[in-house]
Write a structure and sequence with these properties.
alpha/beta, Quinone Oxidoreductase, Chain A, domain 1, Rossmann fold, 2 domains, seven-stranded mixed beta sheet, six-stranded parallel beta sheet, globular
């Protein structure tokens, strides 16, 4: 099969022929139909993920058609079109038994702990637990985005953030997961404020349902500006992953508000305004994806017309574009979401 392989972190990515994956017990092999180009893939190529061992193939946000079924897999058949969360839980540890596979103690992550979907074929581990059948009406590119950015935003805004109608949601960072967060905020009837430094990203945010926008480059106190604009947020999410945006998110909250950290940090630790957390009894909540067992709730919102992931797509690529498109993500010049649709 063809795959986008890098031999060293921050090194060249080459499209080469490699051996097809061999299906293992409990796994399935899928032919990749579409795969998103996510900032987490950029971080992986850049060397910030300790689980990655070179040579490596990234790509964790994908939809595929089952071409081989491993021993012990009972729920899936060849020909099924499936999506999987980027965190594949084992199904048997304590968090998995509680329906929280995204924090599984034995988790596997295609594209990180093992080779991913920037290739003709990839595998889904613990397939009976993690592979989700895609409704026929959902396109390949929309289904791929459900695997990470859309489902992660659902987890952050709806489940962890507990956003309710009439509340104020502030979204810091309007990339793919931020745009999805905005769409979920609109779907539940919240007032949504989008924060970014890119006018193109803010324009997309308005198209996805943001009521108000704030160009963070125009103020040296984002938190205070958001208090002036909307009186502060009930729920605020950092979708970028940086000490500055996380701090801005916390400082934009009104008393008893909920900060949700979705974006991955490039460092293991960071300084945050903890005094404000104590003073206003704020909640700090982390998000590590959504369990496959609740993907049906996302698909239901899509079927009801409350969410269209394809509205976030601004670039459709082929596998041969990955060697240039993935490193270019560090420059933040491409707004919206890029999806590889030709493999």
């Amino acid at each position: 099969m063809r795959a986008a392989v890098f031999e060293q972190f921050r090194g060249p990515i080459e499209i080469v022929d490699v051996a097809d994956p061999v299906v293992a017990e409990g796994e399935i092999v899928v032919e990749v139909l579409a795969v998103g180009l996510c900032r987490s893939d950029y971080h992986g190529w850049h060397g910030t993920d300790p689980d990655i061992v070179c040579p490596h193939v990234g790509g964790h946000e994908f939809v595929g058609r089952v071409v081989a079924v491993g021993e012990g897999v009972r729920r899936l058949r060849e020909g099924d079109r499936v999506v999987a969360p980027f965190v594949c839980g084992c199904g048997s540890c304590e968090p998995c038994r509680r329906g929280q596979q995204q924090v599984c103690r034995r988790q596997q992550q295609p594209g990180f702990t093992c080779w991913g979907a920037f290739a003709t074929y990839t595998t889904v581990p613990f397939a009976d637990t993690n592979a989700v059948l895609v409704p026929p009406a959902v396109s390949d590119e929309a289904a791929a985005l459900v695997g990470c950015r859309v489902s992660t935003a659902y987890r952050g805004v709806i489940e962890r953030g507990r956003l309710a109608a009439g509340e104020v949601l502030c979204v810091h960072g309007c990339g793919g997961v931020g745009l999805a967060a905005i769409a979920f905020g609109r779907a539940v009837g919240a007032q949504v404020v989008a924060v970014d430094i890119s006018t193109e990203a803010l324009a997309l945010a308005v198209a996805l349902g943001a009521d108000l926008t704030l160009d963070a480059s125009t103020t040296d106190n984002v938190g205070a500006a958001l208090h002036d604009i909307v009186g502060g947020a009930h729920v605020s999410v950092d979708c970028l992953g940086h000490a500055a945006t996380a701090g801005n998110s916390i400082l934009s909250l009104r008393a008893l508000g909920r900060h949700v950290q979705i974006g991955l940090f490039p460092t293991a630790t960071a300084e945050l305004p903890i005094s404000r957390v104590i003073r206003d009894e704020l909640e700090l909540l982390g998000v590590h994806g959504l369990s496959a067992s609740r993907f049906d709730q996302v698909f239901a919102m899509m079927a009801a017309g409350q969410l269209d992931p394809t509205a976030m797509i601004t670039q459709r690529l082929s596998l041969f574009d990955i060697p240039t498109a993935l490193p270019a993500m560090g420059a933040f010049t491409q707004p919206g979401v890029s999806v590889v649709t030709t493999l």
